[in-house]
Write a structure and sequence with these properties.
Oligomer: homodimer
Order of helices and strands of chain A: EHEHEHEHEHHEEHEHHHHH
Distance between the termini of chain A: 36 Å
Strand content of chain A: 5-15%
Helix content of chain A: 40-55%
Number of helices of chain A: 12
Chain lengths: 280, 280
């Protein structure tokens, strides 16, 4: 049974196109409208079956939508959601897929036209790759999507949770601020650390890089502009995570500098315990 | 054509057993003697075809060997190589597979019985996993093995290089000290960073861990005791790498704290350029 007559997706990159593919594969939507600024990118998404129709006109694209998912870079989400809210039907619900939530959700809760119909979301299923061509219909399966109502939330919350659940996600509900603190530690810090490690590596040593360097720096391939936006929007929590990490790093340095073998092994073992708890 | 009549492998973990499998698969050795302290581990290696015969008696195990590869933890390599040298035939060559080279090669170059017949090696093909059961016959294919002669090197050097080449490795020759500086940056630092990142993560955030955290911390699963030995043996170079990294991390922190978007994106882009240069 169709859950939605018309779903509009604003921004058909990796996440947006994967949502479209998942909706179609599962028969959850009658029409899927892809909305973006770049006609050839939209055509790529249409050709691969991620959307059924495309337009560069946001107002026209959302005019008949029952659900709109805004999948644009985090710095654009607030203005895109407001533009969507001004043009979509009264009954329509709006969510997003941004990696930060505090700034976005606070802004949108402050406006009457978005307070009741927008619910923030963050599917934890990104990749260092970007673009519709890397989209996967099973991208959200078994992955966590965090849904972040403001205050008590609205009637829209369970519907947005049901949406991500219908794509195979494990839905976790958190406040926008709790979300930002958690993803600073679990996602934004790994990116910053991977990037710093890659940047600190001398070019002439790269020919010796094996699996360790390669795994540890993989996410540093992510789009620099998108990540700059994410880090700045989540500035406070990321700075806290950086400082917490720097303290642990200083402990490692001290143990190594003083050849405190027992302490060094204890620190290495603490890292191993956390990593092993996750599995491969 | 057989390259070696008898090869002895001291320590049949992931690396030692993979050497055995590669030698057998390529028909490069008549006999492969697995030497270790733990009889049941040796039996595992024999049962999987990594060695043709096993013994817990090092002297007996190397008595007829033409080549001995010491694959024990780095803190043990020097004493194991000296014990091997005292018991093997005069014509036999000895190498190792340790992740540090300066300390080991300096020690062994200072003794007449090992100076001419030992050549240090480091196959850059480890894994966060350990144990013979994770051995692979193609572990060294397309991977770099660094061979580290001391001074001018001996006649043994080209033979040891030919050995790793025959297993499919790309051989790179470096001095022990240049090796240690390079691997501090490309291998030991990623481990230390991954471990510090994992250790700094709160347990309650782990349920949200996605691909980014998982990739960035993967190597932290490595054996804590082995890595403690490696970091301490390569103390000087690792501390230099830690300080270089900490400086780049401080640059990131400063750019983020001051909301210097241009600088932050420049740093992220520098990391991306280095990572993209490697490929996936």
């Amino acid at each position: 049974m169709r859950a939605w007559e018309t779903v509009a997706i604003v921004g058909v990159g990796l996440i947006g196109a994967s949502i479209g593919l998942a909706l179609r594969r599962r028969g959850l939507a009658g029409r899927i409208v892809g909305i973006g600024r770049n006609a050839s990118r939209l055509e790529t998404a249409r050709a691969m079956g991620a959307v059924t129709t495309v337009t560069t006109d946001l107002d026209a694209g959302v005019a008949e939508a029952d659900l709109i998912v805004v999948c644009t870079p985090v710095a654009m989400i607030t203005s895109h959601v407001r533009a969507v809210a001004a043009a979509c039907p009264d009954h329509a619900l709006i969510t997003d897929a941004g990696s930060t939530k505090g700034f976005i959700c606070r802004q949108l809760a402050a406006h009457a036209d978005t307070a009741s119909r927008f619910v923030g979301s963050h599917p934890m299923a990104g990749s260092e790759k970007s673009g519709a061509r890397f989209a996967q219909e099973d991208l959200f399966e078994q992955r966590v999507t965090i849904v972040t109502p403001v205050g008590g939330g609205s009637d829209a919350v369970p519907q947005i949770e049901a949406f991500w659940d219908s794509l195979g996600s494990r839905v976790v509900r958190m406040s926008p601020d709790a979300h930002d603190a958690a993803v600073a530690a679990i996602s934004h810090m790994p990116h910053l650390i991977a990037s710093a490690l890659a940047a600190a590596t001398a070019t002439e040593d790269l020919r010796l890089a094996a699996g360790g360097w390669s795994d540890t720096t993989r996410v540093a391939s992510g789009d620099a502009e998108l990540w700059r936006q994410i880090l700045i929007q989540n500035q406070g929590h990321v700075l806290q995570s950086v400082d917490k990490f720097a303290k642990v790093l200083a402990d490692f340095r001290e143990a190594l500098a003083t050849e405190d073998a027992a302490r060094l092994e204890q620190l290495l073992d603490a890292g191993k315990q956390k990593r092993d708890a996750l599995g491969s």
